[in-house]
Amino acid sequence: MSREGWFNLALAGLLVAFPLAAQAMDEPFLVTLATRAVILALAGVGLNLALGLGGLVSLGHAAFFGIGGYAMGILASHAQGYTPLAEWPLLIEGTKSMPVIWLVAVATSGLAALAIGALSLRTSGVYFIMITLAFGQMFFYFAISWPAYGGEDGLSIYVRNGFPGVNTLVPLPFYGLCLAVLALALMLCWQIARSPFGLALNAARQSAKRAETVGLSPYRLRLAAFTLSGAITGLAGALHADLNRFVSPAMLSWQTSGEIIVFVILGGTARLFGPVAGAGVFVALEHLLGELSDFWHIWLGLLLLAVVLFARGGVVGLVCGERRHG
Amino acid sequence: MTLLLLAEQVLNGLQFGVMLFLMSAGLTLVFGVMGLINLAHGSLYMIGAFAAAAVAAATGSFLLALAAALAAAAAAGALVEVIVIRRLYDRDHLDQVLATFALILIFSEGTRWLFGSFPLYLDTPGWLSGPVALPGGIQYPAYRLALIVVGLAIAGGLGLLIAKTRLGIRIRAGEADREMTAALGIDIRRLYTVVFALGAGLAGLAGAMVGAIQSVQVGMGEPVLILAFVVIVIGGIGSIRGALIGALLVGLTDTLGGLFLPRLFALVMEPSAAASAGSALASMLIYILMAAVLIFRPTGLYGAEA
Amino acid sequence: MAEAILSARGLTKRFGALEASRDVSLDLRAGEIHALIGPNGAGKSTLIAQLAGSLRPDAGEVRLAGRDVSALGVAARARLGLGRTFQVSALAMEDTVLQNAILGALGARGRAPSPFGRALARGRLRDTAEAALARVGLGECAGQRAGSLSHGQRRLLEIAVALTLAPRVFVMDEPMAGLDGEAALSLRALLDGLRHEAPILLVEHDMDAVFALADRISVLVEGAIIATGTVAEIRADPAVRRAYLGEEG
């Protein structure tokens, strides 16, 4: 097995062992922290599909993260208030069931990604970055100025949503649930990277001209990747909202988009487990540095600057060396 | 709705647009000449505002405060260019995004550390505090009117600078062909630092001028930065004229949309629903404008054809 | 006379004051190698770009296998059977030689791959790709990164990728450039046989190869075709001699 394979295995082992150890030491807070890392990793896995494989530098993934979050918030708040979402043309009730919420989160954020992607992918490079950032901001302002679901204050739910057969109110089972979702997403990405689609998408990233010349439309490949990417990040948003039992426009802010990119880069772009390593490091830093100093973002900024200027492979790159090709 | 209200809102839109132009001009120049996307441009806007607030508090002079804003932002820009930005010109956009995102974190937290989390207030100068009477019986705040005048003057000056001066010729040459410009003996490194500092100074000035009608606080720069991106996407990257037209379009659309949409919705809805739906849609209007431009001219109104 | 599989009628393209293509008409017939020659700056690349769909002409039309493809883009024309190679290699440089070739086989299926499609098996795609690599003599390099190939080898890989498409026509931009004696000769032999699978529009500076291979030659000067004919006809054409040798008519 390659060095990266061993690294991934070790990381996967850590994801299982850490919360169990935290539980054994009676530190439920650490389990919650690990849950946060796993959910953020999932958001990064989503972005990595567009960014790593497709070369699409999206600075608007907060939109999908937030839409997923609001999908949870809106459905659950209607369910807890016993008010239907809509009565006409057909009756739509809220729900407290995670599988339904996830489905809605994936569908709505995927749809948003499809729309944003269809427009932004008409351009490339720096235009694409600015446009995705701008569309992300559009959702942010919309959430702030739409008073029905809390506006600027956001939306709280009283009790975490349920999943058949899992007691989601207890930190450890909820963690297990999130980890299972992350594992599924990783498997999907692994599969995609090896599929004809992945090959074509990756080739279009390196040379759009090449893909076109063999009859593959880079636009369609990228739009498919961007949509899927948004849907995965949206699912992460739903889980994140469930973790906090709270959703607010902050999930949609440009900082969130920036942070999701940071997970991917901190871990190592286009590495399967890069976002997992990156989100883990991010949450650990946030926790450790946050205790030391109120201004921990300065240190995060300096670290990020150092990674960009001097250690471009991220954590996985540092541990496993240059990316193998092919 | 009276005509007076409309005229006042048009002026507000102009004022907003002109300030957006000051932000966008630097961004679009830096992108056009150096090929760099700079997320930290909003931090320079913030630095200008904080420098102005600090100097105004110490000296009581608004003009000194403006000068300080310009100087501080330009100096910070030059410093950052020499230490960090310079290493990014040959990198891909992803690295530029990340490094300048890191700079935002550093600048924002650094400012919070220096000045605390509470907003500062910068007063408009006494000699510009009242309203002025405009033709047609419009009463409009003198300070906002001054912003429009100053902003347009700077836009004109920038146009002249680029069209007529030696620096402008070099900027245009650098935009067209970096290697050739360097081969002709122009010190391209210094040119880049100057262009970056110029853009930073404009952003800082805008931050200070707007800071006097809003509050001066950490994080004030990024929403304006993102609007400036919308402006550039609409106007076309690298085009100063596009930035001006785009900025005015965005300024007017945003201001007038906020005025008209709720009233428009009120024609078909009950008032409270109309107000919320109208304001929610108004908040999206400039992005819809951007999407429309993208559909018809993906490279912006004045952008080079791809 | 054999039918024209790729044809251009009245192609005109201006860049500002420069007329890069002036009313160009051109036929590529079944079974032939049709060479396009002309001095540097004559507009050969501009013309090829219009044929392949990466540049929209200001006027004129392009037909591929009897169908008007003027409104179609590069990818659509490729799916209709236009196999193109580039003067400056456009390959997925981080991928292996084999992956590049598989990409061609993938595009040839005409159906966009889905994200939920099956993993790449040792199936038909791979067989097609390996066969194409073997034909151009890159079979040994299948596992190497495309970026590690020499410039000449990259040209060969371009041709292999075009082969995997099983195209109706080939449009090749200087495939010989950068190849040394032996490799150039074996490529010449390959092209010689290839014309029977699909006709080749060949832009080439290697005049030995052009005169040895071409069934017909078109000469492009300042954006216009001044002569089209067999090798002998072109050698004797006064307009061509004037353009190349400066002879007085």
Tell me briefly what this model is.
The complex is a heterotrimer of chains A (326), B (306) and C (249). Chain B is mainly alpha-helical. Chain B has helices at residues 3-34, 41-59, 62-83, 93-115, 142-164, 166-176, 178-183, 188-211, 221-235, 240-266, 271-296; strands at 131-134, 138-141.
Which SSEs are present, and which pair or pack?
The complex is a heterotrimer of chains A (326), B (306) and C (249).
Chain A: H1 3-24, H2 28-53, H3 61-81, H4 98-120, H5 125-145, E1 155-156, H6 171-194, H7 196-206, H8 208-213, H9 218-244, E2 246-247, H10 254-267, H11 274-292, H12 296-310, H13 314-320
Antiparallel strand pairs in A: 1-2
Chain B: H1 3-34, H2 41-59, H3 62-83, H4 93-115, E1 131-134, E2 138-141, H5 142-164, H6 166-176, H7 178-183, H8 188-211, H9 221-235, H10 240-266, H11 271-296
Antiparallel strand pairs in B: 1-2
Helix pairs in contact in B: 1-5, 1-8, 1-9, 1-10, 2-3, 2-4, 2-8, 2-9, 3-8, 5-6, 9-10, 9-11, 10-11
Chain C: E1 4-15, E2 18-29, E3 33-37, H1 44-52, E4 59-64, E5 67-68, H2 74-79, E6 82-85, H3 97-108, H4 124-136, H5 151-164, E7 169-173, H6 181-194, E8 200-203, H7 207-213, E9 216-221, E10 224-229, H8 231-236, H9 238-245
Parallel strand pairs in C: 3-8, 3-9, 6-7, 7-8
Antiparallel strand pairs in C: 1-2, 1-4, 4-5, 9-10
Account of the 3D structure:
The complex is a heterotrimer of chains A (326), B (306) and C (249). Chain A has 326 residues and is an all-alpha fold. Chain A has a domain at 26-252. In chain A, 72% of the residues lie in helices and 1% in strands. Chain A starts with a helix and ends in a 6-residue tail after the last helix. Chain B is mainly alpha-helical and 306 residues long. Chain B has one domain (18-296). Helices cover 75% and strands 3% of the residues of chain B. Chain B is built from eleven helices and two strands; from the N terminus they run H-H-H-H-E-E-H-H-H-H-H-H-H. A two-stranded antiparallel sheet of chain B has the order 1-2. In chain B, helix 2 packs parallel to helix 4 (93-115), helix 2 (41-59) packs across helix 8 and helix 3 (62-83) packs antiparallel against helix 8 (188-211). The mean pLDDT of chain B is 90. Chain C is α/β, with parallel strands linked by helices. Chain C has two domains: 1-81 and 167-249, 3-Layer(aba) Sandwich (Rossmann fold); 90-166, no CATH class. Chain C has nine helices and ten strands. In chain C, strands 6-7-8-3-9-10 form a six-stranded mixed sheet, with helices on both faces. A four-stranded antiparallel sheet of chain C has the order 2-1-4-5, with helices on one face. The mean pLDDT of chain C is 88. The interface between A and B is large, with 44 and 44 residues.
